[in-house]
Design a protein that fits this description.
The structure is a single chain. With 209 residues, the protein is α/β, with parallel strands linked by helices. It has a single domain, classed as TIM Barrel, CATH 3.20.20.70. It is 23% helix and 24% strand. The chain contains 5 helices and 9 strands, in the order βββαβαβββαβαβα. Strands 3-1-2-4-5-6-7-8-9 form a 9-stranded mixed beta sheet. Strand 4, helix 2 and strand 5 form a beta-alpha-beta unit. The mean pLDDT is 95.
């Protein structure tokens, strides 16, 4: 299922699913302009995943990172979000190095299931119970964003909140297909536990990518 990393020339090519300039729709940076790079490949297997089409990286042609970087520069974007799939499957030092040379902020969204490479200005950790984060990744996270499909998922969120640094932002995000059922519960939970905030998928409300 997964691409031989030798083919990717140690991160100089990546299996690019899509790239687009839009507004960040989730978490701490909601509403801010950012260029998104979606990389193919994921074995975490969330049943509610809204990007299952990304799971097999063999479906996506490896693209040279220099070409991706030039596309970003042309938009005038000053921040890039690397997402997936699961970005930590790939060596990302080369990509982030090129972006930093251009003065572009680098953000990543990861489940933490694998060691994370690259140089990041912001790390959003979104842990999944079926493939938990590796040891040490919690202390690197600037933001903990846990997807809540049912009330019991909050127990998983609290387990992970115990492992992050004190400055890490804490978010509970309703799973989109269960939004109407779960949002009242999250509102009351955050009122009772104000260390948390609710993250909404604002891009879906705005109907933008």
């Amino acid at each position: 299922m997964y691409i031989d990393l030798n083919i990717l020339e140690n991160g100089k090519l990546l299996p690019l699913v899509e790239e687009f300039y839009t507004l960040q729709g989730e978490g701490f940076h909601t509403g801010k302009a950012a260029y998104f790079i979606r990389i193919g490949g994921c074995d975490v297997g969330c049943q509610w995943c809204d990007a299952k089409f990304t799971w097999n990286p063999a479906d996506f042609k490896p693209i040279r990172v220099e070409a991706i970087t030039e596309n970003i520069v042309l938009t005038g974007a000053n921040a890039v979000v690397v997402t997936g799939g699961e970005p930590s499957l790939y060596p990302l030092d080369y990509l982030t190095g090129l972006l930093k040379q251009r003065g572009i902020d680098t953000f990543v969204e990861t489940s933490g299931a694998y060691p994370l490479t690259g140089h990041w200005d912001w790390i959003c950790l979104s842990p999944k119970p079926q493939q938990p984060p590796i040891d040490g990744i919690h202390l690197k996270a600037d933001e903990l964003k846990v997807i809540i499909e049912k009330p019991e998922d909050i127990l998983w969120a609290e387990e992970n909140a115990k492992r992050v640094k004190s400055t890490c932002k804490l978010y509970l995000q309703p799973e989109w297909s269960h939004y109407n059922e779960i949002i009242p519960h999250l509102v009351e939970y955050v009122k009772a536990n104000p260390k948390w905030q609710v993250s909404l998928q604002a891009h879906k409300f705005m109907r933008i990518p």
